[in-house]
Structure formats: structure tokens, C-alpha cells
Amino acid sequence: MNSYKKAIHKNFKENTFFRWGCIITVLILLLVVVGLFWMPYEPTAMNAAEKLKGISLRHPMGTDNMGRDVLSRVMYGSRITLLIAAGTVAIGTVAGTIIGALTGYFGGMLDEIIMRIIDALFAFPSILLALVIVSIFGIGWIQLLLALGIAFVPSFARIVRGEVLRCRNMDYVENARLQGVSDFRMIFVHILPNIRGVLMSSILIGFNNAVLAEAGLSYLGIGSQPPYASLGKMLSDAQQYMFGNPSYVLCPGIVIVLMVLGFSFLGEGISRWK
Amino acid sequence: MSEDICLRASNLSVFYKNRKRKLFSKNKKIQALFDVSFEMKDGEVLAIAGESGSGKSTLARTIVGINKDYTGEIYQKYDRPQMVFQDPYSSLNPAKKIGWLLKEPLRVDRSCKWSEAEAQKRVEEIMEEIELPLAILDRYPSQLSGGQRQRVCIGIALMRSPKLLIADEPVSALDVTIQAQILELIDNLHRKHGISIIFISHDLRVVYKVSDHVLIMKNGRVEEYGSTRQVYREPQAEYTKQLLKAAGIK
Lengths: 274, 250
Description:
By secondary structure, chain A is mostly helical. Helices cover 74% and strands 0% of the residues of chain A. In chain A, helix 1 crosses helix 2 and helix 3 runs parallel beside helix 6.
């Protein structure tokens, strides 16, 4: 455990990407965590007297067209966005890793069939696939989470399958097999720890894609429904007021950018781990 | 008579799948070994020698059960033979610590359950056997030298006291001084525990030093088989003569 701490400390000092990734991500997480316990205003509380105000001390990010505090809505919205992104990546990673590991390890006919299905899913743009799934299961952020999760499975399955295929023929796997290690133990105890680096960076990249996909889909009106906010929904609501009240568009936009930037810096930092 | 035979292969032919497989083409097989037969007595060192691609490793992998596609018969007196691989850089799992790797054979042992203390004691015994300090247990394979890694590989193979150990060119990836140490270690193990060893090598000088019997292979066939001294003194096959000449022995 101590050596982990040391490595993180060292990387924080020397690895610029990792440092900025940490700083930005912690800032965003702070916004979300503080939002759990305290928000300056109720995110859904309207106030007709204070419509479309600019940045001020009372409203650090201004107010929207219904007089709701943008900072509070951003806090609430980034919580939803983060939740959807995390859930999406969790579904994609778990299902993708299991499918990829099993098909890569056992190969054969089953591998061929599953990989052709995955190829077919891959041929669809993930947003289109999510649209189809949402149109079947209905609108709402849980449906959106499931839809994006399923859309993310193919890419993870692909990556994990390739890595498992590479590891499967290594001497250390054969060595372990000679000692009587079972297939299940071989996959999950011997092989998977060797691909955690690749998995980690694809999780972070996937996280970014999920944040952007959520924003995109919410912008299209699928996902969380009014009066509740998500970052993408806020952007789509704000676009009419872009010139009259720029802070309403800019603030959620900047938070999305920072969220994506933070995670991609982290991913880059991990791939340049010293 | 058959009491003290620990391994017998009769008319062994081994096949590989052709990797260049197209979608609808029939799988073609490539034959790697042709009618290999030999016997090995309990407690002896059998060397398998021959040039690259002669089927030495294929034979070893078939004996331990990695290659399953074969015809003919393999009789083994003991189950679960262990193998030390040629390349110590790829035969240890890079994500695990040495201590973990050494304990793994005990963890997956179905014949008896090892308690944590027993496993630890066994690991320490083996570390003494392979002459490595206990501090290494806490390191990753990438932090070890080639010679140390090969010792660890031998240690892992020995954890459950096998009766038959197959060493597939265990020293050819190492430099000369380390080679001598590893050979000495294998020799000691053989003397102390009476383990039967199949020693695969292309180096005929090494073969002469370690083995009782030798099997000379070429293109998947046995060229010559006999006691090492006999074969080196009076080689019968033309190929053996060439090999000995090339090694500067005759």
C-alpha cells in the first residue's frame, strides 16, 4: 500500500498530465459532493423577479429564464451527468470485460458468433443505438443510462478480447495451467491483472465519451426531464439566450469541458505513468 | 521391469493446427512429430537434443499435456509433470509478486489443502532450495535478473514435489556464468531428490555434462537414442556425427 502512495506522490510531482487531471477532477468532484449537502438555492426554485441575471454575488453563475440559480442547477446537473457517465462505463466495463475475456480465452465458434454480433453493434454509432434503445424503453435518465451502457459494451469487449488473446498464448499462462489452475481462475486472477493498464485508460476514455454522449442525448431531449437538470439539458435550454445572457450557456458548457478535460488528462497521465 | 519406467512414449505423432485459416477452408493439420518412441527410467536424466525446429519443444509440450492433438501412447508413472520454460522473461506472470507466484501451485492443489502457515513454510524451503534470499518474495518478476527468474521458475515447478521435471532449454536465454549456476542447481536437485529430468538443449556439450541417456531429433523424427556416453563415443546416425562435429566434440 505504501508503495502505491509513493508512486502516486511521485507522479503528482513529475507527471504534468496526471497532476492537472487530478486537480481538475477533484474540482469537479468537489462541485458534485458539495452539491449533495448544500446548494445555494433549490435547483428547481423559480423566481420571476430575477430572470436571466448575469454573474453576481447573489448568483455566482447568474440565473436562467425562469429565475433559477444556475450554480445550483449546475451542481445538480453535474451530479446527474456524472452518475450517468459512471453507470454507463460500469455497465460497459463489466459486461464488456466478461464477454471479451470469455470469447478471447475460449475462442472457437462461440467467439466467432459473439464477435460478429459485436461487430454489428459496432457498426451503429453509439448515439444512434442509444436513441433506438430509449425509443423502446422510454425517456428518463435511468433508461438513458442503460441505453448508453449497452452501446458501450462492444468497444470494451473488443479491447479486452484483443488483450486476452495476446496474453493467452504467453508462457506464464501455460505455466499456470501446468500447475492445475482452472480456466475461470486463469482468466480472472492470472490474465485480467495484466490488462488493467489498458482497461484503466479505456475506462477513462469511455468516461469522456459517456459524458459527451449524455450531454448530446440530453440536448436532443432524451434523458433527464424538466424541471430536473443535467448539463446537456441545461445547454439545450440555454441556447436561445446565448447572446442575451452568455453566462447561462457558458457555465454548464465550461463544466462539461472541464469534466472531459480532467478525465482525459488523468487517462493520459496514467498511460505515461512513471 | 516396467516398475522403474517413469515415462514411455510409443509411436507418438503430434499435429498442429494450421494457423493460416480462411473462413470456409477445411482445417489442415501440420504434423510436427513422426512416430517417436522412447523409454525413460525412474530417476535418470534424459536429454533431448537437436537443431531448432526439430520437435524438441513439441515433444516436451506433448508430454506435459499442452499439446493435446496426438496419436500414439504416452505412459506416465506419476501424474502432473512440471516444466521449466525456455524464456524466463515470459514465463512468470508480470502482474504478480514472486511470493504469490510460488504459492499459486499450493492454492490450486486439489489433492490436499495447504494452510497459510504450511504454504509459507513450503515457500521458505523452496527459496532455500533455489538459493534465493527471502526478500525477493516481495518483488515483481520485472525487478529480477534472468538467472533469478529462472530459479523462481524452477522453484514454482518444485512446489508440489513433482517426480518428473521437464526443462525446455532452461539456460539458452542466459549468459554463460549464470548458465553454469542454473545447471548446477538442476544437477543438485536431481541428486538430492532423485527427480527424473528431461533436459532439452541444442548444446551438445551441456547435454554431455548432465544426461544419462540422449535422444537426438531431426525434423520431428528420432535420429538416435542411447546412453550418452555410447552415443558420443560411437555415433551411429550420420546426423549425430554432424552435430558432434559442429559442436567441436569430434
